[in-house]
Amino acid sequence: MRTENLEYTSTRKKGERIPLLIDCDPGIDDAMALMVARASEGFELKGITSVSGNLDIETTTKNIELFAKVLKLNAVLASGASEPLVKGKFSAEEVHGSDGLGGASSLFGVSLSGDRVQQNAVDTMRKLLLEEERKTAIVAIGPLTNIALLLKIYPEVKEKIRVISIMGGSLEGGNVTPLSEFNFYVDPEAASIVFQSGVPLILSGLHMTVDATITEENLEEIRNHSGVLGVPAAEMLKTYPGTAHPLHDPCAVLALSHPEIFTYEDLTVHIDTREGDSQGMSYKDERPWVKKETNCRVLLKIHQEKFRRLLVDTLAF
Ligand code: RIB
Ligand code: CA
Question: Domain named Inosine/uridine-preferring nucleoside hydrolase: which ranges (predicted)?
């Protein structure tokens, strides 16, 4: 079913602030996703958890603490899985730099003590989900290792999850191989567990995020922002103008805060867990004679100009 505008998987009343957890591997675009979430009135950000992916768990954990301080977030912080469930570790340091933030970490002007971060992201997510009366949305923008462990170890949390908005996979093309996108390539078994879990999913895949780009003019606007983030964020984003580096992860947040900028289709999506070029490939099953429930709301297109405006305006605080 191809629909022009995305509705929430469960509708959000006007002015309602929905409880939110973000599981991430910052990572430059993860950092932008945290900023977009912070700027949105639509969320109560209850927890931020780190997973190894773009960089090792030590670096991604440092970066969730850094942005919790920079953005003055009082979310609970916890570090998660240091490697994928089955496959070997695989990083994207060449894209995000050794500090995970394009070399700009020192410009954000915060010192890190590490004392705010709890161990064991899975237990922390379980606690936050069960103690919250309402259903909680999860934004998952790194390899899905923590999320898969959560759903397997504590299946009772499924009924407390409103939706999992995922950045990963692709209906066409890949970035690690011609067929496979980074988050699902790193931990295909975790992605397969999540897509078979029965939990409502929204997917921001490469086929759509490829258009989530910024221009040099956008970068200049960000740099000239009056807020404290302008200069450091612009330094972090210095390689992003153009088409080589889309800002993938903010799409998974905007899917919840600004669904009107996307189109979508409800599909049945499977994950290939075999090693090699197809490792982590996400593919749809549209065979009409195979009776099956769809398992995912796949975002098809993003309104590029609205995305750019939202991103630039996000940093004006
Ligand atoms: O393929 C893009 C995804 O991989 C993004 O989440 C980026 O941060 C990296 O983790
Ligand atoms: Ca990421």
Answer: 20-308
